[in-house]
Amino acid sequence: MSEKYTRKKTLYDPQSKEPYKFSRTRLENFLKCPRCFYLELRLGVKPPSGLPFTLNAAVDHLLKKEFDSYRAQKKIHPLMERYGIKAIPFQHENLNDWRNNFKGMRYLHKKTNFLVFGAIDDVWEDNDGKLSIVDYKATAKESALSLNEEWHASWKRQMEIYQWLFRQNGFDISDMGYFVYCNGKKDREGLNCKLEFDIEIHSYQGNDNWIESALEKARACLDGDSIPDYTVDCDFCTYQQSLKSIVH
Questions:
Q1: Whole-number mean pLDDT of the chain?
Q2: Residue 109, exposed/middle/buried by CB under 10 A (0-12, 13-18, 19+)?
Q3: For residue 105, what are the β-bridge partners?
Q4: I want to staple 87 with a disulfide (CB 3.0 to 4.6 A). Which of 11, 124, 188, 217 is the partner?
Q5: Alpha carbons 38 and 10: distance in angstroms, whole number
Q6: Which of 116, 113, 114, 92 is nearest to 104 (CA)?
Q7: Dihedral sign, CA of 47, 51, 97, 25?
Q8: What's the pTM value of the predicted model, to 2 decimals?
Q9: What is the Cα 137 distance to its own chain's centre?
Q10: Is the pLDDT score of 84 beyond 70?
């Protein structure tokens, strides 16, 4: 399939009656910069993409395998036990679909006609049958791990979108979600053919009340006939403005 054809298929058409596939990432992109969001989905001008986080993907893969082994046994993982989380990994026949980047958990938001979807890492079930969304994260830093840095806001929104998606599909979802946070150790004498991690669980009390409004604003943005203004904090907007001032 050619790049031109693929791009055309993903463009938003205000006149179309077909549900528009709207990923969790697209909503995040709108929140960060409506201009870049519009340029990509209406006009096909996609910002340069970064390199894939293959090491992070490997950590995700291994964590899933590890928690899946406890899922199969219907047992609590020792890490969960250490943090006093009285739950076990949730078993469901659609778990692999929920984890698939091209499927994920889906919901047709009728007011916008967006088919909203997002791929989760895990779900845990407590003793009362209530579910918690779990997201795996990997980093390598010397300071204490926290969820208080500015860029953690996108992590929290990601968690809340997953919580919202599951609720729309009828699941009993707790506001309390968990980040399994892996921090690569840099205090070793050498690599010795392996990278070791400290693994922590950080809880987060989510609130998905903002999502309905955000979806409606994203739809209104895409329905508009004019390109939104530059966003001050957007690197791509800053680059475009700088280039424009030089060229002209």
A1: 91
A2: buried
A3: 118
A4: 124
A5: 12
A6: 116
A7: negative
A8: 0.91
A9: 11
A10: yes
Confidence of residue 6 (pLDDT cuts 50, 70, 90): very low
Distance CA 112, CA 157 (A): 19
CB 43 within 8 A of CB 224: no
The 3-state secondary structure of the chain reads CCHHHHHHHHCCCCCCCCCEEEEHHHHHHHHHCHHHHHHHHHHCCCCCCCCCCHHHHHHHHHHHHHHHHHHHHCCCCHHHHHCCCCEEECCCCCHHHHHCCCCCEEEEECCCCEEEEECCCEEEEECCCCEEEEEEEEECCCCCCCCCCCCHHHHHHHHHHHHHHHHHCCCCECCEEEEEEEEECCCCCCCCCCCCEEEEEEEEECCCCCHHHHHHHHHHHHHCCCCCCCCCCCHHHHHHHHHHHHHC
Give pLDDT, residue 134. Answer: 98
Is it the case that residue 162 has pLDDT exceeding 70? Answer: yes
| Cα(218)–Cα(37) distance, integer angstroms | 9
Between vectors from CA 87 to CA 82 and to CA 89, what angle results, nearest 5°?
Answer: 105
Q: Beta-carbon neighbour count of residue 174 at 10 Å?
A: 18
- Tell me the CATH number at 237: 3.90.320
- The phi-psi region of residue 46 (left if phi > 0; otherwise alpha if psi is between -120 and 50; otherwise beta) is beta
Q: How far apart are CA 223 and CA 218, in angstroms?
A: 9
Whole domain around residue 124: which residue ranges? Answer: 3-247
Show Cβ contacts of residue 210 under 8 Å, excluding neighbours closer than 6 positions: 160
- Mean pLDDT score, 125-134: 97
